[in-house]
Specification:
two-stranded antiparallel sheet, 2 helices, Elongation Factor Tu (Ef-tu), domain 3, 6-stranded antiparallel beta barrel, single chain, mainly beta
């Protein structure tokens, strides 16, 4: 199989410092964090405004890439399922997807609400939420 390289476009600055602190889903937890965007891609933020919703794709660098079966939501009362049937961060390619609300755009810093990634997590892409397509 081919391998592909990803280059982070930024990093997460978050009050969540350890993996166990991260909520199982970001939006319900209401965590506020910052996305610190690399200078080389800063022009790509043009058009992002306060009030927008964005999908943040992160590289879950603390994930176990060998895990293929998990108890959904960590609940051992639920039988194990394949990681592709769950939202487990442990998976062969640990790409996280989180829908966030943009609270502020200040140069290379996007302040957001609803992110479940820990401090230092690499950001690999941002995509706009488009209600007519994404609901």
């Amino acid at each position: 199989m081919s391998e592909y390289r990803l280059r982070p476009i930024g990093r997460v600055r978050s009050p969540l410092k350890e993996r166990h602190q991260a909520p199982h889903q970001g939006r319900p937890a209401d965590v506020e964090a910052e996305l610190i965007i690399e200078e080389t891609v800063l022009r790509g933020l043009n058009g992002i405004q306060v009030g927008d919703k964005l999908f943040v794709l992160c590289w879950l660098h603390m994930a176990d890439r060998k895990t293929l079966l998990v108890h959904p939501r960590g609940n051992t009362a639920i039988p194990k399922q394949g990681v592709f049937a769950t939202r487990s961060p442990d998976r062969p390619n640990p790409i996280g997807l989180c829908l966030v609300d943009v609270l502020a755009v200040e140069g290379p810093v996007l302040k957001v609400r609803g992110l479940d990634a820990v401090d230092g997590t690499p950001v690999v892409d941002l995509k706009p939420y488009v209600s007519s397509l994404d609901t």
